[in-house]
Amino acid sequence: MSAPRSLAGPIAALINEFSKLPTIGPKTAARLVFHLLNRPRHEAQALAEAIIAVKDHVRLCSVCFSLTEDDPCAFCTDERRDASTICVIAEAKDIYAIERTGVYHGRYHVLGGLISPMDGIGPAQLHVKELVERIGSEKPNEIIVATNPNAEGEATAIYLSRLLQPLGVAVTRLAYGLPIGGDLDYADEITLAKALEGRRHL
Amino acid sequence: MRLDRVALSNFRNYSTLELALSSGVNVFLGENAQGKSNLLEAIAMLGTGKSFRTTRDAEVIREGLELASIAGTATMRAGSVHLSCTVTRGARGTRKVYTVNGQAVRYAAFLGRAKVVTFVPADLHLIDGAPSGRRGLLNSALAQDDVRYFRHLARYQRAVQQKAALLRSGEHPDAALLQIYDEAIVEIGTELMLARDHFVRELAREAERAHAHLAPHERLTVRYHPNVPFEGATRDAVITAFRARLRERAAAEAQRATCLVGPHRDDLVLELDARALDVFGSQGQKRTAVLALKIAEYTVMRDRNDEAPLLLLDDVLSELDDARARALVAVLAGAEQAFVTATHLPPELQAARRFRIVAGAVEAA
Ligand SMILES: Nc1ncnc2c1ncn2[C@@H]1O[C@H](COP(=O)(O)OP(=O)(O)OP(=O)(O)O)[C@@H](O)[C@H]1O
Ligand SMILES: [Mg+2]
Ligand SMILES: [Zn+2]
Fold first, then answer.
1. What is the mean pLDDT of chain B?
2. How far, in Å, from the CA of B291 to the mean position of ligand 2?
């Protein structure tokens, strides 16, 4: 669906810009635009400035490739964080999921994607070489590979474990589990089988 | 199982339709291009979530509109279930949403709730057509039968695509990565092969029995022809054979930059009195064998599940001669529920529940 033709230029233009964003379709885009039209000017100004500020001031950390204003980032420079573990994730946004758990206090390393030859992405396109260098210089004890349990996440995790283990570092993966509050009856068979394989002593 | 009601909205040439269906045989009668096959297609989509006529989902949406939906209520052993499938045309492609009892679910949870066996004129080429058609029969039956098969198949195909892309990526593909994809292909491919081996044994038994009724003087045999031959259907035997074959063919795979080994190249072999049907069979012999295979597919699906699948026949009765049509009608008569399209009422189906379809409107006849 494209914006109705009768709408004035700036409205149609903003609907069009919003529709380019992930998870936002044309209908949601139109709702956002009409919402903004009903708000005071300074709110719109603040939104526009925040968007530009993100682009102008946020960059990649040269050590771990997370998004940061200061290079190296706070995760890499905070002395209270445990430098003996590095958690490897596909995308910078995955850091926020792990931080929300509140139980991880080590450092991070963002790969910048997952291995997927179909998309032209091999180890050389990811920050794998930099990870190997960090292991040499920072001498961590453990690398936690926290990629998604899909085909690409699995292949990447296995690749990394075979590459890194010979460097004398322990490589671990996130355990697969059942969703908390979920019902055994409704777990799919593969999740259940993996959860069984990964069972622990009580 | 029995489909009690089906409701369509903007599906192909139907704007809205609400239809109560009977157990036993339901016949959809009408002139050409009125919507008989469209209705059958919609019913099949309630089971498989996919069209049996097209891989482009948007084609089922009524021309010029954006959203098509199919809903149905079925009675199963476990009770009544409400299913729906909605197809939406959007700026970023076509989207499908499935629900079971009003809850949105993923495809894997929708697939196989209502099991269906379809028989369409294109199936008459199952024997002389490409192997992909015969693998399609196995995949469709097994994915509906067990959702684990569906998940394995999806993962397997992904691993094969990734490996093929890696082989095409340059002169020296990353050996460590190639090994990782090969391990995934062996692990998941083995599950597919074991499931197929088991299924084809049952299919063969039923097909040979059905064929003996149709052509008592000829003997049909149906065999699974795995791309990786193995002795004894145990996991270890398959894995060992699979790994050995991959090693043997590694150079050829690298040279041709494609995946040559694994169940994506499996086939079914059909023989009549020990001679290959696709090469030596007459048209009539091939049709009889297809019919036996389809009857067997229905029987095995029914016996495996304790719940009879819906049997859907699009235009096939008119494609068969009298004796073969009678054999099929006998299967229809034994089915819990079946749907048949025809331009003229076949005499054997006088007793069936009849519907007349004219330009996307259906009336009980
Ligand atoms: N997306 C669509 N929107 C509107 N009409 C459609 C759509 N797709 C197909 N049709 C129409 O549906 C009609 C075909 O219906 P269908 O294939 O069910 O015919 P049929 O009754 O099975 O005929 P036959 O006896 O020839 O097989 C055609 O007129 C076709 O133009
Ligand atoms: Mg038709
Ligand atoms: Zn950092």
1. 95
2. 19
